Structure formats: C-alpha cells, structure tokens
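User: Some background: our group keeps a shared notebook of sequences we're curious about, and every so often someone picks one and asks for a predicted structure to add to the entry. Today it's my turn. The entry only has the sequence so far, pasted here. Could you supply the structure so I can complete it?
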Amino acid sequence: MDPDPLISVVIPVKNGDSWLNETIPAILNQELDGVIEIIVIDSGSTDETLFILSKFPVHIISIEPEEFNHGLTRNLGVSLAKGKFVVMTVQDAKPISQFWLQQLLDGFTDDTVAGVCGQQIVPHHVDMNPVEWYRPISKPEIRKYYFPVTEVFKQLSAQDQLSLCRWDNVNAMYRRDLLTLIPFRKTDFAEDALWARDTLMAGYAIVYNPAAQVEHYHQEDFQFAFKRNFIVRYHFYKYFGAVPSPSNRFIQFLKTVKLLIKERNIPFSQKLDWLKYNYRNQRAVARSNDIILKSISKGSDEQLDDYYRQISKLIPQALKLEKSR
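Assistant: Of course. Here's the predicted structure to add to the notebook entry:
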C-alpha cells in the first residue's frame, strides 16, 4: 500500500500548455522527506493541457468552465486531498528551487500556524518586463502574524488589515485540517486574502516566508491591466473597505525611466519598448483606480457594482508568452 502523501498540491488549470511542461516537473522534483500528490482541476481547456498532464503522475479532475470559482474550486481540491498539508499554486508558477516545499513547511513552527505564504518573483529574462524584475533590498525574513485577542485585529484600519492579509494562492501552504475548518469563501476573486482575514479572526496565525519563491509573470496589454487592477481593487474595497490611493503617474514614469536606465544589458530600443509598455499599463491602472475613487466619492456603491458586473463578464486570463530564452 502506498503511503499517504505529506503534501497535496492543488492546481486549477485552463489552457496552460505554455507552462505545464515546466511547472509539473519542478513540483515533482522537489527535495522532500515525504510523498507529494498533485491534484489538477481543469475547467474546460481547449489546447494541449490535458495531453501534457497525461504524461505525469497527477490526478485530473474536470469541471465545466461555468462551474469554476476561485474559492469553491479550491475547496473541491482540498476535499480530494490526502496530505497533511495542502499547497495552492497556479499553472504558470514555477518553483525556483528544489527546496520550495520544504521552505514552506519551515514556516509551521507551532500549532497556531494555519498557513504559510511564499513569494512571487519575476526573473531577469529578456522577454519579461524589467521594471518588475526581482531586486531584493534585504535578506528575506519570516514574518508571523497572530492575534490571540482578535479584537486587536478588528481595531486595525482597513488598510492595515489588508496589508497583513496580502495572502497569495499562487504560492501558499495550509494545514489541511484547518483548511477544512476555515474553507475558502465563494468569490470571484480575493479568496486568499479573505481566508487570511478569516483565519486571523479565528485566532490562528499566518506566516510569510519570502524565501519560498516561485517565478510568476503576466504579460499584459491595456485591457488586461485595466480589468485585473479594477477587479483586485474592487474586491479589496468590498471585503476590507480599503480604498485605492490616487495614482501619481508622473512619479511612476520617473521611477520606470530610472530602473530602465540602470539596466545596462538591455539595448536602448528595447528600453524604449518597455517604457511604452509600462506607461500604457500604468495608464490602465490609473484609469481603473479613478473609476473606483469617483464612485466611492459619490457614495455610489451601486454604480461601482454595475461597473464591476460589466468588467467581470470577461475575467482576464494570463496572456501566453512566446519565450525567447
């Protein structure tokens, strides 16, 4: 009889053939004193996703596209998991080392810890936006947030609560027993941040270990940047009461120029292309923030909800990147 897995990795997928040939082996090749199982939940892929997955020892669950929900689909994965710990990640996130899972495990220092969240990084690849490249300022340190007296957490400002709950299901590990006790909510977005708040409110601890890193990058156009930012900020406002800060595009532009100038290995013509790319996307983010701020200033949550219903009809999907490396 095969031993029960120590860790179950749950991955929602849809049309992920550009990434899965790298993502799945990187997970299976982890250095770990325990068994790993991978549960893939496919919601109607029409590319080569299922063919690629058939080459690996993974459990594939298929659901209809309209059944997908950021919270409930992940709860489905948890219900099928056999591991003591459950990892949530996505099809286009690749662990940067063979010790990624162990680094997440290292954050479970005592029984109060319900989950450990790692870090997303953008590697220094020529086909990825250099403004987003990973540039660590200091050595990553583990941070633990724990409120045995939950009233202390409740008294924090909306922005402070959100800052503590910047949880991320691109790279997170959970104790399965607590994940069944505190499941993800049914929501179109921000199921991870909501889970973190629910967990702190329930008197458990959450831990961030930025040493547990995955490569994750989205190539964006104006519509992707606009929709994604609007959806993120809408949910943060609705769930936390956090209001986006007005965008200072001039300062953002100067910072972008400064970063690009420093990168001596990028040809001038490519720097110009990346400058245009970032300017365009910063304009998209500023536009979506302005819509939210104007609706809030008018006291019109109904208008904001209408905007959201229009924008979320087509929730943005990551653009497939033609890799040149």
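Suggested note for the entry: The longest strand covers residues 205-215. Residues 222-314 form one domain.
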